[in-house]
Design goal:
about 170 residues; alpha+beta; 60s Ribosomal Protein L30, Chain: A; 2 domains; 6 strands; globular
């Protein structure tokens, strides 16, 4: 029991010694605080009950973006390639409004109605900036029975992390 208290005390002391006033850790001045920012562009159609994205600090969580145009009309009825292009264009727009770019995506999930493995090539071709050859994001393609609106064939969601803009602490090597 004594060891546990000592380890806990040392851990608390170590973590407490790293924190600096205003957030962040020593050596990381200017770190963005972890406040929530909701991203709901007025120029984009939105599924009822969902926010397009929430940014917390440097991380952006994007809801499933679907193949709707700005007026809320389905794009490319029955055409997976056209719908994928629109869904990824919507994802790209939401990311950019939140302060991210496709290269910031660390996790990508693609939902496809009646998915068949050959569909992945169609999806990648529709948005190559989200599927780079070197260091692609983690992710998954899931076959689903249906999506929120009749005729939708694809939805994509993402988690993105913007590069931190750290300034070295004064006097640090």
């Amino acid at each position: 029991m004594q060891r546990y208290r000592v380890v806990t005390g040392v851990l608390a002391l170590a973590l407490g010694g790293c924190a600096v006033p205003g957030g962040g850790f020593s050596g990381q001045q200017g770190v963005e605080p972890a406040t929530r920012r909701f991203v709901n562009p007025g120029t984009m159609a939105q599924l009822d009950g969902f926010t397009h994205a929430v940014r917390i600090g440097f991380v952006t969580y994007v809801s499933g973006e679907v193949p709707l145009d700005s007026a809320g009309h389905l794009v490319g009825a029955g055409d997976l390639a056209a719908q994928a292009k629109q869904a990824f264009a919507n994802l790209n727009l939401v990311l950019r409004i939140a302060g991210n770019v496709p290269a910031d995506v660390v996790k990508l999930t693609v939902y496809v109605v009646n998915y068949h493995p050959r569909d992945l090539a169609v999806i990648r071709q529709a948005a190559p900036e989200f599927f780079p050859d070197k260091n692609p994001p983690t992710g998954l393609v899931l076959g689903v029975q249906a999506l929120p609106q009749e005729g939708m064939l694809i939805a994509v969601d993402a988690i993105a992390q913007a590069p931190a803009m750290f300034r070295p602490r004064a006097g640090a090597p």
